[in-house]
Amino acid sequence: MAEIVLDHVVKRYPDGALAVDDFNLEIADGEFIILVGPSGCGKSTTLNMVAGLEDITQGELRIDGKVVNDKAPKDRDIAMVFQSYALYPHMTVGENMAFPLVLAGVDKSTINEKVGEAAEMLELTHHLDRKPANLSGGQRQRVAMGRAIVRSPKAFLMDEPLSNLDAKLRVQMRTQVSRIQKSLGTTTLYVTHDQVEAMTLGDRVVVMRGGIVQQVGSPTELYERPRNLFVAGFIGSPSMNFLPAQVEGDSLQTGLGSLRMPDRIRQAVDQSSSREVIVGIRPEHFEDNALVGDKAGSTVEVTVDLVESMGSDVFAYFTVRGDAATSGDLADLAADAGQDMHGEGTQVNARLDPASRVSAGGQSTLWVDTAKIHVFDAESGQNLTLEAHEPTPAATA
Amino acid sequence: MSATTTQPGPGRSEAEDEAARIARQRHNEGIRAERRFGLMLCAPAVIVMAAVTAYPIAYAVYLSFMRADLRNPSDREFVGLDNYITILSSPYWWNAFFVTSFITVVGAALQLVLGMALAIVMHRTIVGRGLVRTSALVPYAIVTVVAAFSWRFAWSQGIGWLAGPDSAPLTERWPSLFIILLSEVWKTIPFMALLLMAGLALVPEDLLKAASMDGANAWQRFIKVTVPLMKPAILVALLFRVMDSFRIFDNIFVLTSGANDTSSVSVLAYNNLIRGLNLGIGSAMAVLIFLTIAIVAFVFIKGFGTAAPGADGGR
Amino acid sequence: MAATNTLETPRRKLYWGAVNAVVLIYAFVPVIWIVSLSLKSDGELNNGRYMTTSPTFEAYQQIFSNDDFTRALINSIGICLISTFLALLIGTSAAYAIARLQFPGKKAIVGASLLVAMFPQIALVTPLFSITVAIGIFDTWLGLIIPYITFALPLAIYTLSAFFREIPWELEKAAKMDGATPYQAFRKVIAPLAMPGVFTTAILVFINCWNDFLFALSLTTSTDARTVPAALSYFQGATTFEKPTQAIAAAAVIITIPIVIFVLFFQRRIVAGLTSGAVKG
Prior knowledge:
The structure holds three protein chains of three kinds. Chain A has two domains: 4-224, P-loop containing nucleotide triphosphate hydrolases (Rossmann fold), CATH 3.40.50.300; 237-389, CATH 2.40.50.140. Helices cover 26% and strands 30% of the residues of chain A. Chain A has ten helices and 20 strands. Chain A has helices spanning 43-51, 93-103, 108-121, 137-150, 167-184, 195-201, 219-224, 229-234, 263-270, 328-337; strands spanning 4-12, 18-27, 32-36, 58-63, 66-67, 78-81, 155-159, 187-192, 204-209, 212-217, 241-248, 251-254, 257-260, 276-281, 286-288, 298-309, 314-320, 346-352, 363-368, 374-377. Chain A has a six-stranded mixed sheet, with helices on both faces. A five-stranded antiparallel sheet of chain A has the order 13-12-11-14-20. By secondary structure, chain B is mostly helical. Chain B has twelve helices and two strands. Chain B is flat and about 90 Å long. Chain C has two domains: 1-56, no CATH class; 66-278, MetI-like (MetI-like fold, Orthogonal Bundle), CATH 1.10.3720.10. Chain C has helices spanning 10-38, 42-45, 58-64, 67-100, 106-118, 122-134, 141-166, 170-177, 182-211, 214-218, 228-235, 245-265, 267-278. The interface between B and C is large, with 111 and 111 residues.
């Protein structure tokens, strides 16, 4: 178990391409850190640098206070779980899990004991004599975990360990990974492109984009106080709705209608000179006006295109005419999500109470919780309203 | 919160240059070591192949411009293109060239059609797939000379189960050529079929299902979906077979020894070299065969865009 | 060939059964014929029947008491084994480099070995003849082993590099993370995974050497190094009047059977080897 420090770490390829720029992070002993971002954001490169599988161009990597930049992977005492699991096909499950111990010259009885323990924890006891080829995806994943666990390393590195599993199994394994990490208390660095994994697993989440850290914080903090458009759009599912807007006095003129800013938001926005902004509204900050009563906020009239009733929630989709919000951050997000269809206007998603009676094709009046909206500078993508949102107690890590 | 987003500050570009320099240096060291190691590992193979082919072929070119007859070793002298002129004006050469081309072209066509049929059977059969795939390898495993003997005896008068009482097909030109063709095709269909089967396996099943939903019948699916997708595999297989067929020697040597105008260019060259000990003429023939094969390969690779196997060479 | 017609109705089974039968006839008729011929007695030889009715092993006794044949058999086995071993030794290192490392001239090496694979062997007969005579290895094992290695190398390099590319090299990384030194990663993880490919390649290379006729015929003059395929062609000219048909057939069977058994036994691997080397090199 260890504390890992990345101090101004830079990865630059010889052709000049910058994969990771000035990465700073102190990982406390036992902490579960998630590196998240779209593909190509440098998260796997960062992990490989910690593993020792890639050189660090500049900066220092310290494990327990010792600089390990030039140490070989085997001398760093770190275990890694690969996306493809990287199980040795010619070895049985038991041999796979024992391999790191065999290499370390541990005696037979200790190996058997440790492998047995790990197998029990991962429910692999009955499969120890099988070859990886005869295992299901979930079992293989568990063997990969087992191989990392047996040697009680200083830290676990996990490179998208769940992304090859189907959706249901992924949820199941996610909780298992979390439980194992909690019970072992081993420092863990976990790479994923799935923001749901990031939100559910991590003590802290590092959001990366284009080799640069965008924000570090607890899941709640990232969710409630995203520093910029990219983080706002990346974290949260379904994701935040973005609409271009002009600031006029105390209200925001959007394609949805006029939204009156509460004082805190207004003060924050007035600190900046920008009048062209992007408003971000999370789906759950809409509500069917009929169910709200007289809480503070704004109401808007929309024509609902589609209603999805999920039982616990109702999702209403509608289109806002006019130009869509544009920015580099949003373009990156759309590309990552594979959205390249640009219809007329902006699709907006509202998450309503199941009691709502909104129906597709009909006019509906929706309420917007304007105290929760985010206002971003259209130019830089920075969140102008960061100060307006109180950090919840849990977010102050 | 220890992490911060990058703030561009003074001195940053210098640090960047330094970083790039270090990266380049480390990378270059790595690359140099990898290059050295790669070349070292390949060296023995390259040396052996070069020593056994490059030097001899140069020597063959040299001999082809000489009068060189082992029965008259003292009479060796430079004769320029005389050997080539002799060969290219000789009806024997052109006959052998025709025989070789005939066997190559007709053989390749037959191998393609029959090989495709065999590939489809191996790929699609619903009963005894293992048995079929295994048995189909038998002709591949049989030594060419043995197969040739089997066919020769089968048509030997009196002995053979295929020979009529009064016929001796191996003493007549065209019957002989067809028997040579049969022997050659019999032996090489499995290899062709295996290459084609690998190509067949690359055609996604869903695509064929989609085509059949679109109203294509079995033949249309084969011609309009399977074959176009298999084109690279077909071209590589054809290239292999054409190159190999053009060198045909064993079958003809055993079946007819080249009698009755059934010599291939290789048999003719062999007879001049080893039996006739006329190194000059034999070498010139060898050079001509080499050139022909090189041209055919060039046409395949440049003309039809056949991927040279292993040419991608990358990771 | 129909993607949708995969229903296993009795009629379709019967249809495919008939098709399979055609394949079996195609594959086995010439083979059974030569076996049958090798078992025929002199009296039966000229009846022209496909199957022998009174099999006898005389021909086999005859060839095994013939020193020329046993000598040729030993030559064949020895020369092919040594050639295979050396070709694999050289080919494996080259194939590893081609599959795994970046270095200048890689494409040239791959291209050159393609050239060698397509080389008309006849073009080498004269120069090799002269050279082997000149350096005194004509009509020796070495005189055949050298060209065999050369022509086995392209095959070995293609097949092996295709196999090597298939190895999940992430395992090497995994081994390093598990605490292995580079040597341990190679010996405990990569080598065991590469072995099947090496073994398959060995079979293919061996078959190629075993099959050779032209070099065996041209680069030998005596039984010192003559291999069986070449020796077979000399059987016939022994005496003009008595053609030892059954003896040739028996010898043919002897050199065929081991290979056929070998191929049938390792069918899957051989198919993988032949196709991986050629289709996606």
